[in-house]
Design a protein that fits this description.
Length: about 200
């Protein structure tokens, strides 16, 4: 039972992250408009989005070993940081794919025997995390963003120089804030779903 719960948690966390990464394809054009990134970059929406897709393609595809964006040069430090990000992306996707079948079968079994009430307490605890992180982000997102990078990366390559890595100019902080918020909202929604369905089973509905 414990290893199935572990697989479930890994699936939910990695799934919420992967979903956010995929939804960023829709978020990016919105922030191009909101932050007037066309004026910042001196190029149209089509070109900006094409470069974003090139970046995300590199980060997603294991066989893409060289980052190339048509209109943005990449420094050695920038390339190294994106390579580290790529490794994290691929790790997240691998965890989601591997744990997915185990988690789905586990949830199906709990549903079949009406024992989803087992999810209530751990999901209530899990639901606290997005609220705490969301509160911290609302108070000082910059501090949270810096702390995240110091935890996840072993170097300071993420401190981009806009002269040598101008891509950072079209990846504004509020875009990353929206992505973080979306990931937290997705995870919170999963926690609420587990609590609601678990209580339903507890009532014998």
């Amino acid at each position: 039972m414990r290893w199935r719960f572990l697989a479930l948690w890994l699936f939910l966390v990695s799934g919420a992250i992967w979903l956010t990464i995929l939804l960023s394809f829709a978020l990016f054009p919105l922030f191009v408009h909101l932050d007037h990134l066309q004026d910042v970059a001196g190029m149209g929406m089509g070109k900006l989005y094409h470069n974003y897709v090139q970046l995300m393609g590199y980060l997603h595809l294991p066989w893409e070993t060289h980052l190339h964006m048509s209109d943005f040069p990449v420094s050695v430090h920038g390339a190294r940081h994106f390579r580290d990000v790529k490794h994290l992306f691929l790790l997240d996707i691998a965890i989601c794919i591997v744990t997915g079948p185990i988690a789905v079968r586990f949830l199906a079994k709990l549903r079949r025997v009406k024992e989803r009430y087992r999810l209530v307490r751990p999901f209530q605890i899990g639901a606290v995390a997005p609220l705490v992180l969301g509160a911290l982000m609302s108070l000082n997102f910059d501090a949270v963003f810096v702390a995240f990078h110091k935890i996840m990366f072993r170097n300071n390559d993420w401190l981009f120089n806009p002269v040598t890595d101008p891509i950072i100019l079209v990846l504004p902080e509020d875009f990353f804030l929206a992505c973080f918020a979306l990931a937290l909202a997705a995870f919170e929604a999963l926690m609420v779903w587990g609590i609601v369905t678990g209580r339903r089973d507890a009532r014998g509905l």
